[in-house]
Stage 0 sporulation protein A homolog (Candidatus Anaerostipes avistercoris), 233 residues
Amino acid sequence: MSNNKYKILIVEDESNIRSFIKTILEAKGYQVLDSKNGAQGKMMFSSYYPDLIILDLGLPDIDGTEFIKEIRQSHKVPIIVLSARTQEKDKVQALDLGANDYVTKPFGTEELLARVRAALRNSIHGKETEDGQMAFSLRDLMIDYESRLVTMNREPVKLTQTEYNIVALLSENAGKVMTYSAIIQAIWGVSDRGSIKKLQVNMANIRKKLGIKPGANPYISNELGVGYRMYNE
């Protein structure tokens, strides 16, 4: 195996796709474990404790969503779903169950590698936050959690309490797609017909106050029909 400290488990039943992903990851120096079904994948996870899982949903012995549920009962390891299921409801279900990201087949090599890097960075960021890190920075954006202060280019950004809570939540999960329902539950605690519209209005105000212009490299992306993601690079 490579000397790269990151170990990645691929759970994918299609041998050609599994082999292709393994090849491109090993070329980038990652240690790679691979499994052709859910049972073998769970056994390998318990034996090797990988740093990240790339998971297909259409496994021959278990649906990938059940695999996510079982892992999330006791582990926070990043999970990237790689699936031919393209409907929004499938994406939302996987993300709400605890997947960190969702990539649809067919996929681009560079896109997958970027998602892997983002998920691993997010995992590191989460450990630092748990250990007491009190700030988040992304290019010109800085968030001081202790003082609840957000600055852009060192200038304070006047956010409402709700707007700040949304920005803080997204930054604490930087690199991960947060579904509408997950954000709404965390911010308001309830969900109703007007909740998504309320979230969208707040996000529009946040973008305006952060000075995010159309076509510019955003700090927060809108995953249409699914949710929002705060970038971490």
In short: Residues 109-130 form the longest helix (22 residues). The helical segments are 15-27, 38-48, 64-72, 88-97, 109-130, 161-172, 180-187, 195-210.
